[in-house]
Write a structure and sequence with these properties.
It contains two helices and eight strands. Strands 1-2-7-4-5 form a five-stranded antiparallel sheet, with no helix packed on it. It has one domain: Jelly Rolls. It is elongated, with a radius of gyration of 35 Å. It is of the alpha+beta class.
Length: 179
């Protein structure tokens, strides 16, 4: 019975010591708040001008040249971006000999409207996911000059054909990767 009393007393004293140490720790700790942090993600967006079609010609013949039509690409987002351009027939029936014979010349101008690069192809079909090497910072704009042509050596395979096509622009942040 004596052992039980000493055990109970030891248990009691041990509990007081542990509780006292815990209480002391609680009295000597402090907590401070550093302030509220805020993080906002950037946006990737671009606008194109004009909104109307660049090309609408009738009765074209081999040797046709549209002359340069300008496209204004403006970065309306908050992230710096790069972009690519694709030509695409509107319908399956528009992917015909005329569409395949239309050559293009794309002039890329820098922010000061100085000619930076000329890209060309013998068919609009080649204008697929063409990445423009000029980056556009947030709020800035770039000018592209696009010209279409039909080779003068083209035969009568395009006679009476019509094609409809559109240009698609895809943007990604300047250090991003296109899918």
């Amino acid at each position: 019975m004596k052992n039980v009393k000493y055990f109970a007393l030891g248990l009691f004293i041990g509990g007081v010591i542990v509780g006292g140490v815990g209480a002391v720790k609680a009295y000597i700790t402090k907590q401070r708040v550093l302030g509220q942090g805020t993080i906002t993600s950037a946006t990737v967006d671009l606008s194109l001008s004009p909104q109307s079609p660049l090309f609408n010609f009738e009765s074209v013949t081999p040797g046709f040249n549209s002359g340069e039509q300008n496209i204004l690409v403006k970065n309306t987002g908050t992230a710096n971006l790069k972009y690519r351009m694709t030509a695409q027939p509107v319908n399956a029936s528009d992917d015909n000999d005329l569409y395949g014979s239309l050559g293009y010349k794309l002039r890329v101008y820098d922010g000061s409207k100085n000619l930076k690069e000329v890209l060309s192809g013998s068919s609009l079909k080649d204008l697929s996911n063409l990445e423009v090497s000029e980056y556009v910072d947030a709020g800035e704009e770039r000018t592209l000059g696009l010209e279409l042509n039909l080779p003068s050596s083209l035969g009568s395979s395009i006679e009476g054909q019509t094609t409809n096509f559109k240009f698609l622009f895809e943007a990604v942040q300047s250090d991003g990767v296109f899918e």
